[in-house]
Structure formats: C-alpha cells, structure tokens
Amino acid sequence: MSEDSNKARPVDIDEVLPPDAKGKAPTDEKAHHASEVSRIIAHWMDEFIHIPGTSIRIGLDPIIGLVPGIGALLSSSVSFVVLAEGVRHRVPLFVLMRMGLNVLINDALDSLPVVGDAASIFFRSNTKNLALLNQWKAGEQESVKKGSRLFLLIFFFVWLSLIFLWATVWVLMAGTAWHFIKQVTG
Asked: What is the pTM of this model?
C-alpha cells in the first residue's frame, strides 16, 4: 500500500449527499423546484386534507400527533428530512438552527394533548422550512440569513426571559416557604 493511498482526500458534500441525485446544489432560477421531496413532505404533513366549507387545510402531522408517545417522534422524524435537505444545499448554520427550531416548536406543540395538535394545524413547521429552503435556493440568501438571525435572537431573548422568570418565581416560592416554616417552628 502506497503512502498516497493512506492520505485523506477532501470530500465534497455533494458526493455524500447529492441534492436530488443530480450533482451540485442548484443556485439558478430553477432552484425553487430542485427538491420535490421537501415539497411533498410539506404538502403531506401540513396541507394534505382540505376541510370542506373552510379555507383550512390540515396535514398528517396533527393526525399522527394524536397517537400518544410515538406520534410526535414520527412527525419530527419526517420533518428532519427537510432539514437534511437544507444541509445538502449548504444552508448556513443560522438558517439550519431556525429550521430545527421550527421542528422543535412543532414537537413542543405536539406534546400538549389535543390542544397542541390543533395548534400544529396552524404552525406548519414543514411549510415554513420549505419556504426558507426555497428562498435560499432562489438566491435570497442575505434576507434568509438576516431573518433567521433576528428570529433566533428574539427566540433566545424570550427563552432567557422565561428562565429568569422561572428562577425568580422559584426563589420567591422558596423564600416564602422558608419564612413560613420558620414562623411555624419557632
């Protein structure tokens, strides 16, 4: 075995995850339609069934979510295919984090029995992720990155505020309990 064969060679991600098995990720005006898999997933999971007499469409996501225990797992597993599509198209980390956060929010909604599944009808994480992916592929990279950064900044601010609120309530409750016990015992 020669010394050259032991050296690692650089691997292009399209060799490992070719987008639609058609070579490198498209970046021209046809990029909007490059991923039929993501479009099909978004349609089936978020907009498959039209409720007669309304403009509301539901997909399999809220229906699958009704199955206790396994529904949310199945739903998020399917949703990660769209996220993997983002990786194949070299979407930056901020946008991938936003796409992952959409799936996570949908999972959080699915964890609430019945009410969460109803809310999932309107949240449509797969459709949101498909829109982000299509905007990225259509050449709107800067606006997608800027919007994703703003979304993540707001999300983390709200998350940190909730943690601070939780910690404050916990400290107040612990202080009140300690004060009450002190009065009762002595």
From this structure: 0.63
